[in-house]
């Protein structure tokens, strides 16, 4: 037996409703019905998967734990996140291009959860949109043979599941 897919990711929120509105307004996620667990939760549809928000009494410590999402308009999402003032400023500030040409962009939601937006090919982007924010990961950190093989987007195997 083996796991075959990720069904959902859960992230904490002091204010579930505020965070839910953020994900609806900024990322265009759709709220879907959620069961009553005896404390506030919200479930959001992300393609065929789900993002679950659950209430906590206090915000967890600042962390690099994150979820990675794909969007239908990477350049538009960069602009929106920049306008919202939520682009990550720390270690994960900017856009990172892997040796594969795949791109990572990070932001923090209102509850300080780190979120990654991924794009499959830097060559398809208008680099002027990003105002010099794009960085080659290999220019920042040495990449060995295995690192150079890293892929965010995996090719499906013969059964249609990611390889």
Write the layout of secondary structure elements.
Blueprint: E1 8-13, H1 16-27, E2 30-32, E3 41-46, E4 49-55, E5 66-70, H2 74-84, E6 95-97, E7 103-108, E8 114-119, E9 134-136, H3 137-140
Parallel strand pairs: 1-4, 5-8, 6-9
Antiparallel strand pairs: 2-3, 3-4, 6-7, 7-8
Biggest pleated sheet: 5 strands, mixed
Q: State the total count of DSSP E strands.
A: 9
Q: What structural class results from the helix and strand content?
A: alpha/beta
Task: Tell me the number of helical segments per DSSP (H or I, 4 or more residues long).
Answer: 3
State mean pLDDT (0 to 100 scale). Answer: 92
Radius of gyration: 17 Å
Strand content: 25-35%
Oligomerization status of the protein chains: single chain
What share of residues is helical? Answer: 10-25%
Distance between the termini: 16 Å
The rough form would be described as globular
Order of helices and strands: EHEEEEHEEEEH
Uncertain stretches: none
